[in-house]
Amino acid sequence: MTEIGMAPSGPSGAGPSTLPGTAMETSADRPWPLRLLSEKLKVHIERAPAVWVEGQIVQLNRRGNVCYVTLRDTDAEISLSLTIFGSTLDRMAMPLESGARVVAQVKPDFWMKTGRLSMQTRDIRPVGLGDLLARIEMLRKALSAEGLFAEARKRALPVLPHRIGLITGRDSDAKKDVLRNAALRWPAVEFEIREVAVQGVNAVAQVCKALTELDGRDDVDVIVIARGGGSMEDLLPFSSEDLIRAVSAAVTPVVSAIGHEADRPLLDEVADVRASTPTDAAKRIVPDVAEETHRIHQCRGRMEHIITQLVSRESDRLAATRTRPVLANPEGMITVRHEELERLQARTFGAISTEVRRGHDRLQHLRAQVRSLSPQKTLDRGYAVVQLDDGSVLRRALDAPDGTGLRIRVAEGELHAEARHSSSSQNRNESTE
User: Fold this and answer.
1) Is the Cα torsion angle 291, 293, 294, 299 positive or negative in sign?
2) What's the pLDDT tens digit per position in 99-113?
3) Which of 111, 175, 356, 362 is the most buried (most CB within 10 A)?
């Protein structure tokens, strides 16, 4: 609240007022007059600038040159009353209609006499389909730049989900299509259903809430957001930034099943899988039991054929291996080696025996040679060996003076004698010297 420099005079009308200068200073004993509060409110409100707002006309009442309009937010249960004068209405190319989406430039105004706050509308313009598409395209580019639509963020759907979360309209055809087609494809499929508003101001909040609930459940493997198509205006909640960011933040894979091919809502861009219709979504989230059974039979047939071929091929290889000589007559290899070993053994024994005989013959020959050169043979021929007492052989007569003891060895035995030199032998020895 703004403060005033001088408060109004008291009840007596004389002297300065003792009223509180600010709202915080008021009390039951020192209240403000109502006119003072109204004046301060009017001053404060008139300072607010004009602002452009967007909403949907839900009530329109024209009285003379003034039109009273109730404008509601497109994504929340919030309404605001507008006052539009005839001059503003005359500038519009088309008259206002209930249900139209508009943007309006409003300026708050406070009526002191009645204490009523009104929104004076200085300009109002309808929002056409082209404007909505342009806004969606701008939002698409902005979110794409953030990476919310990147393929790397998208998660693969489970091959066979245990439980499917379904967010759809109350008793809608989209719900029936998903349930019926999913049950036809996989009879054991289970759903966790959340029925919400799929258009209007409550759609975004309810869809986001249901998405959060299902995403927080551990038994839900995939979430389907389904609606059976509609006009561009009806599908605007599925291009809401709040919903797009909620889907991007979800941990569970999300399937978009908005049956609208002409203009794709942004939900199709951020979802992990886009289905063209709710029926297409049912085909994508669960396999066809008949197809899977047929594939199992085909796989079993191929496996049996491959196994049969493998067993047959290995049997042929085993039979071929068994026909080889080494396996057909395994003892033959031992017999051949045994015979070869016997031949080698015989050759070895023969070579050794021959070498032994030759060595024996050489030994006998050498023995005969040694014996022929032996002193004993000389003695056997009548010769004798004369030795001194020390055992040395006497070779010269001078080495044995007279009286020297001699040992005379003959062929058999030995004799002892003393040396006696004759004169002839002594002269011969001297001449020899």
Assistant:
1) positive
2) 778 888 899 988 888
3) 175
